[in-house]
Write a structure and sequence with these properties.
This is Glycosyltransferase family 4 protein. InterPro entries: Glyco_trans_4-like_N. It holds the Pfam family Glyco_trans_1_4. The protein is of the alpha/beta class. It is 41% helix and 16% strand. The chain has 2 domains: 228 residues, Glycogen Phosphorylase B (Rossmann fold); 168 residues, Glycogen Phosphorylase B (Rossmann fold), CATH 3.40.50.2000. It has 13 helices and 13 strands.
Amino acid sequence: MKVLIITHRAPFPQNGGYPIVVCNTIRGLINSGHQVSLFSLNISKQANHQISEDPDGLLSCIRYQKFDIDTSLSPFQLAVKIFNREWQQTERFYHTGFERLLIAELKQEQFDIIQFEGLYVTPYLAAVKKYSKAKVIYRPHNIEHQVWERLATQKQDPVKKWYLNLMAHRIKKYELRQLNNFNAIAVFTNQDQETLLQYGITAPIEVLPVGLDIARYQPDFSKTEFPSLFFLGSLGWLPNREGIQWFLNTFYHDLTGEELRVRFYVAGNDIPEQFDDYEVMGKIYIQGEVDDALDFVNSKAIMIVPLLSSGGMRVKIVEGMAMQKCIISTSLGAEGIPYENGVNILIANNREEFLRAIKRCITDEEFCKNIGMNARKLAEAHYDLKVVAKRADEFYHQIIAE
């Protein structure tokens, strides 16, 4: 089987949930004996990222093309486009040069499956369907309009709330119009499947969760600082930035005073400069992008996931579980994971619940280790790449046969 995957960002280096999911999908396909091509947009803020992480020679196993694109908008351009009722966020990711690159590939190669990784590459669907007879599969990493709706509910500023609700309305209209143009849809969670079915989507919808090579996740507790709190994620993604800002604003005095005697580490790419203002020596560390995400996770004890808006499945939580981390998350952050609160994760949805959970964890190492061990068992049972890849293979063959 020949598979083409189209992404709205280059998945190298694998420094976030989106690239991890894409690369693990490719690994699963290759391990199942399939040929894979990857065509990626390379947005301008990634331009200074070099391909620094290819630990298992993945690039040598695929045909890889990337196309540089600038998706930024000036305040004036944004203002003009907001008042254009037909404008969509997805338009920022459309470029005729990338479309021509795809068309040339489709004229030269015949694919069985072409998979679109997220809403922002759907502007290329019409060209793909025109020049290829392959089955087209859509994999939403989130139900995109839900993310914008949830962001809007968190805003007090009436202008920001109006803007987010406007974008949510436009994205929902566009998103639902696109979904039935695909031969099939692969979602990460049962919740996303139920949402799409409620919207009357007629295309087949399969639940294919995040798949991890569990053997790569080997915790070494001799190198773990206890107690310690940490957050790891891209702050270029608005729900992450919103969530960690809430946490820092809510617990700043507790962390820098005597209430919580524990260090808090914030790491990830695209951290805005203003976050440096939160840093307090010996208390709060804003580290930015780390060289090795798993080494960083291993070195800390308690993962904080304060997501207030989002959807889909948080890859970093699944990775944290595989690394036997004790995780404190909002229920929204852990959405889609078959967790048991107090057994393999701790759920906290407000200041009081977070404070109670943090105090319990930083004073009881054995309790943390038990939560982490149970989390690892959950990851092994539900997110093993071999199992997920086998299900994906069966799904692809089923769609091809229809």
